């Protein structure tokens, strides 16, 4: 959702305000045909975007400097191929330009793209990170739980942790919680999972971290189907910046649904020959069987540096993939944290594993932000402001 203020000549004002009200995500903050008044009202209540009719700009050259300095984005509505209007839009540092001859179609998409959303809302879908391994006991749950906490700390955004070890899930005890509502309660009726039900099932387990616990008994796992997982992940990523999914080993339907849905599969490996062999087989399934792109799967080496006789460089070579993250052995700290139901990252934030998981979380946040910047560059390059003002084709980037 975002708010819009409309500054326009009277003849257009009514049509524009009605059109803004018809944009599903937009809220009209106000409108005026007096640019000075519009700026005053916007200073008092900052809009997500200010739409200015170029006719008002043409009459108010003295206000250009003021408009250029406002802290919210400005979009100009002007006649197409009007060189003077183009110059005015550039002078006031407009973020975008809507052409008068097709404003009814362009208004919604352009305002939605440019506007700053109302605080506390994420604009884009969150990133889904599935923590997987072909082996049990390699540290998946320890990593998933603490990574979720680290991501919330590093991003200051809401993070969901979903326990998809549907038979023997242990995320809840690891965060010291005995859940009243679990994944089973969401799926047992057979009806599609809706946002309201999911909200009731989520339990806050740390600052900005919300857990969806696994079923309590192994028999209940039978009712969990792949389509439920897709419904739940879709809803979770709409409301959380990151969704961390803990899994059990295996290519079950439920796991494969999560793998397909994931943006990133963090595949956990430990430096021993037996684990390496099965992780190698798992990677083959991802690449050759499912045809996932190389960068969808990232290898996490847990207990790295342990003196097992298997060197990190050899592991990367055997797996024919770089190791994205290395997490050290941390003695008894992880076990103590799990026994006490108080996550490592909160209880022993300075332990070697906590530090490594936090820096992994920070790196993932940086990478995610970089990706979304690239995405928006790509879309805006299609039709840059300059290109549309001048009618020229944009340069390829
Ligand atoms: N880097 C580490 N250093 C020390 N102990 C660890 C480390 N990673 C995991 N552990 C311990 O190993 C055991 C298995 O971890 P867990 O996260 O339950 O694995 P998984 O979910 O893959 O079965 C737990 O007792 C956990 O505390
Ligand atoms: Mg586990």
- Return the structural class: alpha/beta
Number of helices: 18
How many β strands by DSSP? 13
Please indicate the count of domains.
2
Write structural notes for this entry:
The protein is built from 18 helices and 13 strands. With 397 residues, the protein is α/β, with parallel strands linked by helices. The protein has two domains: 2-120, Response regulator (Rossmann fold), CATH 3.40.50; 127-376, P-loop containing nucleotide triphosphate hydrolases (Rossmann fold, 3-Layer(aba) Sandwich). The strands form two sheets. Strands 8-9-7-10-6-11-12-13 form an eight-stranded mixed β-sheet, sandwiched between helices. Strands 2-1-3-4-5 form a five-stranded parallel β-sheet, with helices on both faces. A hairpin with a 2-residue loop joins strand 8 and strand 9 (209-212). The chain is elongated. Keywords: ATP-binding, Nucleotide-binding.
Fill in the keyword field for this structure.
397 residues; alpha/beta; Rossmann fold; 8-stranded mixed β-sheet; 5-stranded parallel β-sheet; disordered C terminus; binds adenosine-5'-diphosphate; binds magnesium ion; nucleotide-binding; P-loop_NTPase; YlxH/NBP35; AAA domain-containing protein
List the helices and strands and how they pair.
Layout: E1 2-7, H1 10-21, E2 26-32, H2 35-44, E3 49-53, H3 54-59, H4 64-68, E4 74-78, H5 83-91, E5 96-99, H6 103-114, E6 127-132, H7 140-155, E7 159-164, H8 171-174, H9 183-187, H10 195-201, E8 203-206, E9 209-212, H11 226-239, E10 242-247, H12 253-261, E11 264-269, H13 273-289, E12 297-304, H14 312-319, E13 323-328, H15 333-340, H16 344-347, H17 352-382, H18 385-390
Parallel strand pairs: 1-2, 1-3, 3-4, 4-5, 6-10, 6-11, 7-9, 7-10, 11-12, 12-13
Antiparallel strand pairs: 8-9
Helix pairs in contact: 7-17, 11-12
The structure holds adenosine-5'-diphosphate and magnesium ion.
């Amino acid at each position: 959702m975002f708010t819009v203020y409309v500054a326009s000549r009277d003849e257009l004002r009514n049509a524009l305000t009605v059109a803004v009200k018809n944009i599903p995500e937009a809220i009209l903050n106000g409108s005026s045909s007096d640019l000075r008044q519009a700026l005053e009202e916007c200073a008092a209540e900052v809009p997500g975007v200010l739409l200015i009719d170029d006719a008002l700009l043409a009459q108010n050259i003295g206000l250009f400097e003021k408009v250029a300095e406002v802290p919210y984005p400005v979009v100009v509505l002007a006649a197409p191929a009007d060189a003077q209007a183009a110059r005015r839009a550039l002078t006031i540092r407009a973020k975008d330009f809507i052409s008068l001859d097709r404003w009814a179609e362009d208004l919604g998409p352009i305002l939605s793209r440019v506007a700053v959303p109302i605080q506390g809302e994420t604009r884009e879908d969150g990133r889904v990170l599935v923590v997987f391994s072909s082996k049990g006991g390699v540290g998946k749950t320890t990593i998933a739980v603490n990574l979720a906490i680290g991501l919330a700390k590093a991003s200051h955004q809401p993070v969901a942790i979903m326990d998809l070890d549907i038979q023997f899930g242990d995320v809840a005890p690891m965060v010291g919680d005995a859940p009243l509502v679990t994944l089973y309660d969401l799926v047992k009726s057979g009806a599609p999972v809706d946002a309201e039900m999911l909200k009731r099932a989520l339990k806050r387990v740390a600052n900005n971290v919300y857990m969806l616990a696994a079923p309590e008994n192994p028999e209940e796992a039978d009712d969990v189907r792949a389509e439920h997982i897709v419904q739940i992940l879709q809803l979770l990523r709409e409301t959380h910046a990151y969704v961390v999914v803990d899994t059990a080993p295996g290519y079950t339907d439920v796991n494969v649904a999560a793998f397909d849905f994931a943006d990133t599969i963090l595949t956990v490996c430990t430096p021993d020959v037996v684990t390496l062999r099965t992780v190698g087989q798992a990677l083959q399934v991802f690449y050759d069987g499912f045809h996932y792109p190389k960068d969808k799967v990232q290898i996490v080496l847990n207990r790295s540096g342990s003196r097992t006789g298997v060197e990190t460089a050899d592991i990367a070579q055997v797996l024919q993939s770089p190791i994205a993250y290395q997490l050290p052995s941390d003695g008894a700290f992880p076990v103590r944290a799990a026994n006490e139901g108080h996550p490592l990252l909160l209880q022993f934030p300075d332990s070697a594993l906590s530090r490594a998981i936090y820096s992994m979380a920070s790196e993932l946040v940086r990478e995610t932000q970089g990706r979304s910047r690239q995405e928006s560059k790509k879309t805006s390059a299609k039709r840059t402001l300059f290109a549309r003002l001048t009618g020229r084709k944009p340069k390829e980037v």
